Amino acid sequence: MARVSRAETQERNRAKVLAAARDEFAERGFRDAKVDAIAERVGLTRGAVYSNFPGKRALYFAVLADAAERAHPPVPDLDAGAGALGQDRPPADPVGLRTALGAFAVAWVRPLADDRLGPDLTPDLLAEDVRRAHGQLLKLDALLLGLALERLRPPASAPGRPPARRVRQAEVVLGALHGASGLTATAPGFLRLHDVVRACEHLADLDLDDWWSTPPPGPPVRPVEEPWHPPAATDLVGGGPLVPRDGVVAVLGLNRLAAAEEAVRRGAATTVVLVTGSPHELGPLARLVVAQVCGPLRQAFPVGALPDVRVVCDESGAFARSLGVPSVSDETETAVRVRDGRVLVRADGFAACHAIADLTVGPAASRSPAGASARS
Prior knowledge:
With 376 residues, the protein is of the alpha/beta class. It has two domains: 6-52, Arc Repressor Mutant, subunit A (Orthogonal Bundle); 97-372, no CATH class. The protein has helices at residues 6-32, 35-42, 46-52, 56-70, 97-109, 128-152, 167-186, 193-202, 260-264, 279-300, 318-322, 352-357; strands at residues 222-227, 247-253, 270-275, 309-313, 333-339, 342-348. Helix 10 links the parallel strand 3 (270-275) and strand 4 (309-313).
């Protein structure tokens, strides 16, 4: 019989703890659930549970994230037929904005009727120590939904104005759905979920005069010219394994996620790597919040309309280290340009995403660092 490694034993115990915790939380709710009871369910000590999760809230986030990620199947061919920068993806299927938002809302509210764990995060879970990160994660969610809406119906830009967008429209949609989720928990029977779906459909025609304002110049861009060997990772947008691609890779702490749009709006294929100084607790929260929007997106929108952004939750820090970022915090902002398996240039600090995305990287850049330093 083959010996089971320590890592395999830890992974099995972690899976057992998650399954037991889901049952405990479902039966007792977060407030009344006991870590000792979870340990007893799987025949482990309290210390064994805490060796995998730093506290009850972190365990609850992990249970919710696991459930959210399993609720919707992945898109296996998200990059099928795409060019190096994702610019040759097939156009979106002819689905109307109202139809897509209605389907998105249906996918969002369907679990509310029978979710034993509770439909949403409550204020006591989102205490002051995680509220800023949670707000930035919702900004990322709104960006992803807004980009999908823009692919279905590009907004008209007025002459002399910056490019129009649909991110604020997405924020209103998500606000309505999160509000419905909260009221389902605190005031059962108050809302008819069918009415929430219809309201989201009507938000398709909402015009908030929204546009993208170019940020100030970023930090200096430095030539690097190093090989890149990314570790295996999951793309939270498509739900399947990440396929590394050329373009911008942004390593962002959870308090800096709004900076992702600075890379996306310049047209480069973008991979956003989420990092945090509290990976055991905020890592699962990040996976949960992103899955809450990406799962319904995959179910409701045609593949061609899904945002051309990849999102990785780097709980171990291995992805960041592969890009030369040895230590991370919730304030980290580092961006690099990659091509043909090499990191060409990098920038660190506030507005690094904009500085890197604003570059024109010519063919010679893969051979000479000097070729990567010319701005558009």
